[in-house]
Structures are given as structure tokens and as C-alpha cells.
Amino acid sequence: MLVANENSQLVMANKARVGSEYTCPTCHQPVRLRHGKKMVAHFAHLPGADCVMNEGETAEHLLGKQQLFDWLVLHNLAPGLEVYLPQINQRPDILFNNGGVQTAIEFQCSPLSVQRLRERNGGYRQLEIIPVWVLGKPYRRRLSRAKIAQFTQVFGGQPAILYWNTQQARFEYQQGYYYCSFSKKRLTAERIIRRQSLALSRPNVRQAAISHLVFSSNVALSCCPLVCHDTVPSWPVTNSELIYWRIAVVLYLGRQPLFAMWKASTWQHLLTQLGQPFWLDFTCLDNGLNQSAISCLTTDLQRAGVIKKYSDHLVLCRHPKWFNSLEAKLAAITDYYSAMA
Ligand SMILES: [Zn+2]
Q: How far apart are CA 176 and CA 145, in angstroms?
């Protein structure tokens, strides 16, 4: 920790003096001032101390916390360091008033489960504090879809993962997670559809599990109608490739009678329900991002003439066409795109 009590006054470790006596602001047990080459100045409980706030912070965590605090001071945001909030038994790394909104910064360097993150956010919500999760170096690896969703926050209307770079003492926004199913590269729509069709034709364990769970019918996923393919990159919202959810919707539509009709709100609800096995948990957002995936598929279905909009209703006008074989589909893709060229 970076602050301790000295005669009931809070003192920051980088202003503390060797030889003085300090106590922990939470448990009031004695703590020792430490500083060396690898770690910024900080306080540590004595061995065996029993304190709820004793979390064994890493050098990266202590350094980042100090830097974030300094950064907020520099921007005249009057931050509080390690302020203990007894009502919720939490101690955010930094607490500050952001234009009238109490804001907590958590600099996260260690693993954190969705469950723990939800509890911490819930605590802050109780006190009307907005938490901001800033990730450190251990999170600078290839993040799984679930981890991306867990720490996705929206800045300036755009989803991003927020990092603090301790080497350069600055914020970094990672926004490079827009992908199409089975394709991280920016390719033409034609090439993406080919890639996705081939990927769906390969037997694979994950796919088998999804097919078993979601697609009770014994369909060859690779022969799915062209409208199933997502060719516009999107932020991850599903636990497996987005195309599986889109196929689930198209399969459902295939089982409905022509001219079936949905009110706009029922349609939203239906597509959300059909995505239940797939949606990721956006722990830091009030609303997940699946709305954008729903809008995108709705537009694609309208463009393909599968559904049409009549005032505030959507009407099923055509059943999406499945292919008899992968070869027939690949040939149809070639024909379609050469006719467009
Ligand atoms: Zn303590």
C-alpha cells in the first residue's frame, strides 16, 4: 500500500521518513516503510499480520498506482489514494471526483474472476461510484473473448480495454478487437465467406459441442445460407464465433411459416433469446453490446429479402436458402461476386 497513518495523519510512502512509526489505516497494526530499486516506496504489514487489505501487491501494481495518482494530481483532479469505504468494505486504488461523479480507479494486475469483478462493481454501484478498470502488464497477452468482454468499457461511445503503461506512465486504449468469424484479417466479403464456409466444414470439437447444444437438426453448418455470414468486423459479443448465433437465428426463421410477423420489440427479444447460449458477460457495462450484433443481422436479413419491414412490424417473406453441398456453395459465391464485379 502507498499510504499509512503517522500520528493519525495519512502519509504517502514517497513522503515518509525512515525511522518513523506507521500504522495501517484499515487495521491499525504497525506497517513498515519499504523502498528499493525494484519497488516504489510503499508500506507493508509485518509478517503474519491479519488484515483484509493485505493483498500482496506486485511491483507493477504499486508503481502503476503511484503513477496514476500522480497523473490525476497533475490534472488537478484531487485524487484520494487507497481510501477505505467501510460501508462496502472495499478500498479502491484511487478515488476522485470526476466533474461531480465519484469515480474509483482500479489498477488490475492480478487475475480476477467475473464473480469478484461483479461484486466489486456492485459495491461501487451501491455508493453511486463509477468504477474504471485499468489493466496492467499481466493482461497484455492475447485475451480470450470472455476476458475482453469482462473488461470492456465504453469511452467516447466506443468499446475499449483500458491499460496503464507503467514504462511510459500513460493510458492506452486497446480497440483492436473487431473481427469477423474465423477471420482476424481485413479481407473482402467474398474471401471472408469462403474462409468461414471452409472453417465450418472442418470437423472440430468445439463446433460439435455447439451443434449438439444449439442446432438440434443435423445440418451441415458449412452449407448455411449466405446471409448467415458476418462480413463486417465486430467487437466480440459471443463466446464462440458470431456466425453460430447467426446460423441459430436463420435456422429458427427456416422453421417459421412464411409471413410470420413480429413487432419490433418482440423481434429484439427473440434474437436475444436465441443468443442465450452465446452471449458473453459484459461485467463492466450496464447493457451488453449484443444490440449492435442484433441490428447488424436484422439489416442483413432485410437486404437479403428474408424479412421486410411494414410500419413497426417485421415480416418473414422468404426462407433463407441452404446449399446442398459445400462445393455448390463455393461455386455460388464465385458466381455471385463475379456478377457484382
Ligand atoms: Zn492493515
A: 13
pLDDT level of residue 204 (50, 70, 90 thresholds): confident
CA distance 2 to 86: 19
- Residue whose grid cell is 462493481: 121
Gap from CA of 41 to ligand 1 centroid (Å): 17
Question: In which band, very low, low, confident or very high, does the pLDDT at 55 lie, cut at 50, 70 and 90?
Answer: low
Residues of the chain with CATH 3.40.1350.10: 3-174
Ligand 1 geometric centre to CA of 53 (Å) = 6
The domain defined by 3-174 carries CATH number 3.40.50.10140 = no
Grid-cell match 462480413, residue found: 231
pLDDT digits (tens, 9 = 90+) for 80-96: 999 999 999 999 999 99
3-state helix, strand, coil in the chain (%, to 5): 35, 20, 40
Q: In angstroms, what is the span from residue 54 Cα to ligand 1's centroid?
A: 6
Calculate the average pLDDT of the chain: 92
Contact by Cβ (8 Å): 134, 105: yes
Report CA(38)–ligand 1 centroid distance (Å).
23
Distance 33 CA to ligand 1 centre (A): 13
